[in-house]
Design goal:
The complex is a heterodimer.
Chain A lengths: L3 H16 L6 E8 L2 E7 L10 E7 L10 E5 L30 H13 L10 H8 L9 E2 L6
Antiparallel strand pairs in A: 1-2, 2-3, 3-4
Chain B lengths: L1 E2 L40 E2 L8 E2 H14 L22 H45 L1 H8 L7 H16 L4 H5 L3 H4 L14 H21 L1 H11 L8 E3 L8 H16 L2 H11 L14 E3 H25 L12 H32 L10
Antiparallel strand pairs in B: 2-3, 4-5
Classes of the chains: A alpha+beta, B mainly alpha.
Chain lengths: ~150, ~375
């Protein structure tokens, strides 16, 4: 059950996203329930991912925004990126330890877009196969992430 | 960046500094619940010098949540990084209790592990005591074990080692030489060459006897066994455990190797060629089979159960031979009979296995399909 705080906050974020989308590269696809959204992001122009369409799935925990949402890429294609595993898990500090309620779903989308934009080489993370085999469809929040690459 | 199982690390990731991407209108919203200023009459807080404002209630929630993740207790503004000044009633008793609960929670897994391993040791001790009683017989066994009230430390040490030694001694020729010394400790008598042999003499000699027996077996019936084995298709393995060796040497390779062995009997020309190919050093997926030990689950279970049942089996065989006139002499102890019984069990087992393999081989090689034949 979502708490009163999370319900109010999610309603406000949803309204904001529908009324004033941050850019044409971020589009809300669906929100079957208040705590599960799908957002389409389109790679920024003049980057390696220009015009490529990907779907992000947000699952909001009951004590959102105190706890971070679970964000993964879903659908047939997951971007090939050094920080994105082929099961859709994203290695991005703000989704885990560095989360703060000052961030929103919209801000997360923009962060991910900027992560894609600053990529210089499309290649999967190291030991992708091992990681994917071990985690399968488990929540990425169960992984103990280590963030050691500031470049991409 | 990659996943790393439980290892505290300095956090510095892509966009490690939380980006505040909200528009300037964020200034008049609570940064936690996003409610706009002046919408409801609630208490607003300006906790730091930057533009982030919030409800005090919301911020208290966030402080509590943050406390669960960090024990330092410092919560900072996500935008200007200024630590929030948290004022609360302080009590030494509370702090002590808090630390106490924290320590107890952390120590719990260790307690559980200790209790678990103690349970295993107790079970092993009970098993060891039972093994001593079975092998030495009731009267001698009771003398060795002594009264439960006055066990010396040594007994607590060697009794639980009995089942472990029984199991370990089955695994490698080298380990087999680690004699059943734990059982030996039960009989602290001087070694004397005598007949019937004393328990210490028997147990000391047992690895040697076993080694000599294996050697003789390999020279005689073992040869026949291997020949029949190689003529038969390999046993279907259920669950397999790979102790070491390369991953890509798969079961297919094992099967292929067995095929080669068959080939060596029927068609001598082809295997030689294959040997040659396999012999090339740069052959991918080549002959690393030597370094691979494949334990089938069934074999493992059989060996475990057999090792643990060994005292009982020996004593049953011992009791059986005790009925024969030669073994009925009074000088022969229950222990000696059990030891001889155990040896007989192994010999009988080996002979039965060879018989089975022979019959299997006969059955298979006599097999043909009825029907009209034409050349």
């Amino acid at each position: 059950m979502l708490t009163a705080l999370s319900t109010k906050r999610l309603m406000r974020e949803l309204n904001q996203l529908i009324k004033n989308p941050p850019s044409s590269h971020v589009r809300l696809l669906s929100h079957e329930t208040l705590d599960k959204w799908k957002i389409q992001i389109i790679g920024a122009d003049e980057t390696l991912y220009a015009d490529e369409k990907y779907i992000l799935q947000f699952k909001f925990p009951n004590d959102y925004p105190l706890e971070s949402p679970e964000v993964v890429f879903v659908g047939d294609c997951v971007p090939v990126h050094p920080h994105i595993y082929s099961n859709g898990h994203i290695c991005l500090s703000i989704l885990y330890q560095q989360w703060s309620p000052a961030l929103t779903a919209e801000a997360v989308c923009i962060s991910i877009l900027s992560m894609l934009s600053s990529c210089t080489q499309k290649k999967p993370p190291k030991r992708d196969a091992i990681y994917v085999k071990r985690t399968k469809t488990a929540s990425p929040k169960k992984t103990s992430w280590r963030f050691d690459d500031d470049n991409v | 960046m990659s996943m790393q199982p439980a290892e505290p690390q300095e956090l510095a990731g892509p966009s490690a500094q939380p980006q505040i991407l909200q528009s300037s209108s964020a200034a008049d919203k609570c940064w936690i619940c996003l409610e706009e200023l002046h919408k409801n009459k609630r208490e607003w807080l300006y906790p730091c010098k930057c533009s982030l404002i919030c409800h005090e209630e919301c911020l208290l929630h966030w402080v509590t949540e943050s406390e669960r993740h960090s024990r330092s207790g410092v919560v900072r503004c996500p935008q200007c990084n200024m630590p929030y000044k948290i004022v609360q009633w302080r009590s030494t008793t509370f702090n002590m209790l808090h630390t106490l609960y924290y320590v107890v929670d952390r120590a719990m897994p260790f307690f559980l592990a200790t209790i678990g391993s103690m349970a295993v040791v107790v079970a092993c001790t009970a098993y060891g005591a039972h093994a001593v009683m079975t092998v030495y017989g009731p009267s001698e066994g009771r003398r060795i074990l002594g009264g439960a009230g006055k066990w010396e430390q040594a007994r607590w040490a060697w009794l639980p080692m009995i089942p472990m030694t029984l199991i370990l001694s089955r695994f490698q020729a080298g380990v087999a030489y680690m004699p059943l010394s734990t059982l030996l400790m039960a009989a602290p008598q001087p070694l004397r060459m005598e007949w019937p042999a004393s328990p210490s003499l028997t147990l000391t000699a047992l690895p040697t006897i076993s080694f000599v027996y294996r050697y003789l077996w390999d020279m005689t019936l073992g040869r026949l066994e291997r020949r029949w084995d190689s003529a038969l298709p390999p046993e279907k393995q259920g669950m397999t455990i790979r102790l070491f060796g390369r991953r890509d040497v798969d079961q297919e390779d094992v099967a292929a190797d067995a095929q080669n062995d068959v080939g060596q009997i029927d068609r001598p020309a082809i295997p030689q060629q294959q040997q040659h190919i396999h012999g090339l050093p740069d052959q991918p997926g080549g002959r690393n089979i030597d370094a691979t030990i494949v334990l089938s689950g069934a074999w493992l279970c059989r060996t475990l159960v057999e090792s643990l049942l060994l005292p009982v089996i020996s004593s049953i065989f011992g009791a059986m031979i005790g009925r024969l006139p030669f073994f009925r002499r009074p000088g022969l102890s229950h222990f000696s009979r059990a030891m001889i019984g155990g040896c007989i069990y192994f010999v009988v087992k080996d002979i039965v296995r060879v018989l089975y393999k022979y019959l299997l081989y006969r059955t298979r090689s006599s097999r043909y399909i009825q029907g009209r034949k034409r050349f």
